[in-house]
């Protein structure tokens, strides 16, 4: 596709369940970012990938959050033992390389019941 | 950690007015982004700049690196410009963007 693709677009799950969010970046983009947008916190950075490695995980809020990227392309963000405060829109962005303009996906709206 | 402040938080104006949104940050950066988000919509990058001024259609973005300040201007504003405008900076210790809280802009016909 031409843009950053995220799936699912919406996810509703019960507290305590694990969830996996997927991001398919623009083809050829080596840099990939995960962000979170919540009512109380606004937009915040979670993790940055350059290729398959994650040199900056500083934004992950707890050890329940993890992310991986394989083949320098698709990335998954996993939240284990979800809590209600995890409810937010999770956004993925990619760029040709770090420091270049970022292109955002439409996000995954996660609701924890 | 970089602190990004935007003003105003909310702005309502009449169609045709000249709009200015301001952004200031606390630590030196490599680049600053202006983003647009429509209600219920995704985020679109309007500008990325590290110095000087950029123009795209009715939108103009300026940055003063010494003052750690940027402005986004909209000329001849139109109701379709109604959106949240977000300033975000790259650098200052993190590899991802640090965001301002956004400016909610409403342009009335």
Describe this structure in words.
Chain A contains no helices and eleven strands. By secondary structure, chain A is mainly beta. In chain A, strands 2, 4, 5, 6, 9, 10 and 11 form a seven-stranded mixed β-sheet that branches. In chain A, strands 1-3-8-7 form a four-stranded antiparallel β-sheet, with no helix packed on it. In chain A, a hairpin with a 2-residue loop joins strand 5 and strand 6 (53-56). Chain A is globular. The mean pLDDT of chain A is 93. The interface between A and B is medium-sized, with 25 and 21 residues.
What descriptive keywords fit this protein?
heterodimer, A: mainly beta, seven-stranded mixed beta sheet, four-stranded antiparallel beta sheet, 0% helix, globular, B: mainly beta, six-stranded mixed beta sheet, five-stranded antiparallel beta sheet
Would you spell out the secondary-structure blueprint of this structure?
The complex is a heterodimer of chains A (113) and B (109).
Chain A: E1 5-7, E2 10-13, E3 19-24, E4 31-38, E5 42-50, E6 53-56, E7 65-69, E8 75-79, E9 88-95, E10 103-104, E11 108-112
Parallel strand pairs in A: 2-11
Antiparallel strand pairs in A: 1-3, 3-8, 4-5, 4-9, 5-6, 7-8, 9-10, 9-11
Chain B: E1 4-7, E2 10-14, E3 19-25, E4 31-37, E5 43-49, E6 52-56, E7 59-64, E8 69-74, E9 83-90, E10 98-99, E11 103-108
Parallel strand pairs in B: 2-11
Antiparallel strand pairs in B: 1-3, 3-8, 4-5, 4-9, 6-7, 7-8, 9-10, 9-11
């Amino acid at each position: 596709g031409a843009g950053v693709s995220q799936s699912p677009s919406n996810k509703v799950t019960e507290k305590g369940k694990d969830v996996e969010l997927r991001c398919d970046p623009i083809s050829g983009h080596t840099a990939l970012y995960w962000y979170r947008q919540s009512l109380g916190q606004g937009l915040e950075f979670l993790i940055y990938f350059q290729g398959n490695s994650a040199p900056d995980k500083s934004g992950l809020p707890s050890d329940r959050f993890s992310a991986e990227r394989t083949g320098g392309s698709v990335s998954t963000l996993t939240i284990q033992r979800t809590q209600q405060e995890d409810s937010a829109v999770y956004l993925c962005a990619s760029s040709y390389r770090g420091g270049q303009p970022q292109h955002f996906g439409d996000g995954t709206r996660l609701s924890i019941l | 950690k970089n602190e990004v402040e935007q003003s105003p938080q909310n702005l309502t104006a009449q169609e045709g007015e000249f709009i200015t949104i301001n952004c200031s940050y606390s630590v030196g950066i490599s680049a600053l982004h202006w983003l647009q988000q429509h209600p219920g919509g995704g985020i679109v990058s309007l500008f990325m700049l590290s110095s000087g001024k950029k123009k795209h259609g009715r939108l103009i973005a300026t940055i003063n690196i010494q003052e750690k300040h940027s402005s986004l201007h909209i000329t001849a504003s139109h109701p379709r410009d109604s959106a949240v405008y977000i300033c975000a900076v790259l650098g200052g210790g993190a590899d991802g963007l640090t965001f301002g809280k956004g400016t909610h802009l409403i342009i009335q016909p």
